[in-house]
Amino acid sequence: MNGFSGILKRAISGSVRHEGRPPPLIVATRTDGLGGRLLAMANAKALADRLGYRFGFTWNSRKITDQESHTVDLVQNIFCAEFIDRHWLGEKVRAADFDLVGHAPFTSSDLDGIARQGRRRGWICNEFNALDFFRDDGAGPPRRSEALRAFGYAPAVRRALDAAGTCRLPGPMAALHLRSGDIVHGTPRRRLVFADKVIPSTLAKAIVSELSSKGLTTLLVGQDRAVLDYLQAETGALRTEDFGAGDFKDEALNAFFEMALMARCQEIHAGKSIYAVVASVMGDVPCVGPGALFGNQRAANFVLEELRANEADYHPREAAFGYQWAFLTLEGETSPTHAREFLKKAQVLDPENDAYDLKVAAAYFRDGDYPAGEAILKSRLVSQSPRRSKIPLPMMDIMTNPAGGWLAMERDFEVFFAAAKAGHPYAMACSAYVLLEALGDQKSALEMAERLVMIEPGNPIFRRIRRRVEMGRKPKSRLARARWRLGRLRWPL
Predict the structure, then answer these.
(1) CATH topology of domain 353-489
(2) What's the rounded Cα separation, in Å, for the pair 201 and 180?
(3) pLDDT, tens digit, 9 for 90 and up, residues 161-172
(4) Are 303 and 64 in contact (CB under 8 A)?
(5) How far is CA 16 from the centre of its chain?
């Protein structure tokens, strides 16, 4: 049953236990990739099953393709007709009809009390750790692995899962998930805050060696075929293709096969990738990071050793990401001089990544070498200015535009402010914009912008920064941004 009739059937299904109304809904409405959606759905269904509520989910009925990150197939290509008819709520729901769970501790009594008031249809359960907030009088957490395995999958997905479940393994195995994609090669690499989602390929040899010493064969899972072929030739590890992954050309089917194969391993080694977490939930097996084998500092040193010996064997951005990962792992524990060494190497390998220049400048500022850091900022901002008429310039945007709720340069603001206080104008330019957009201090930002123009009255970058600061912090809501833009058009130049 599809369309309105299917939605109506879902709205009235379920046992009646709340004053004549059907039980409330626990829904998953994420709009990111396959792994994120499946994990949220597993959480929501496990919680709904525990409470005796109804479970629902949203999903696109048209294929969504984001060339830089993921493709999400149609709902009917992932789930069977019966599962869709029972649980699918359409492409989206009205968020105002639901409360949220997963942000603060809650109990079944809390939810029942709210449900009896009848003001909402139920709760949206989208946080990956939502079940960590659920309290149930000492009972164990809801079993999301059972919920995930109980989904009604489409026949083609079921064939992929069954194929992974029946293929013959050579013995005890550990999966090594080597995500690359957008975090290594795309725009997110410039944000520096997603690196912990990825185990760098330059650490793989050390991991395979350590797992082998424990009697485990390594299963390599990743997106970059050339990298996996190289690592197999170097280490003898196996790839998912060795077990039949190549039979599933469709992206979604291949993903399900690989997740199910990972789920059969004794352990999964991965960054904070939801794809690997779903496999971990699917098989009830532990998913651990590189610190579980080596500790973070030793892992970073393995990466640097591998790059010293074999940097040329890796794609330039794979090698640059190795340096980035090592830097972020050791940041705060290594000297600014040492940090600059491998940041500059990453810079050479990935010259379009402004974040490396910003971090090198910050390292100079930490050493008190303000002229060296200032020279980097001036070079990049001057080169970017002719290509973009608006403020912020790309480098400034990295400093103030959060990604995943984090700012890449937040821990460096203090040293930028120190360089600005010492009178270095390009550090002042960056600091004025940080004060405005990141810290919301327009008064201090305007004072600094005025000083900038006094230092170099004819500098077009500084004059544009002053005009931008005078306009105030950019609003976050869509309507507020539209009004702000209209005000900007009327602003005298």
Answers:
(1) 1.25.40
(2) 8
(3) 999 999 999 999
(4) no
(5) 39
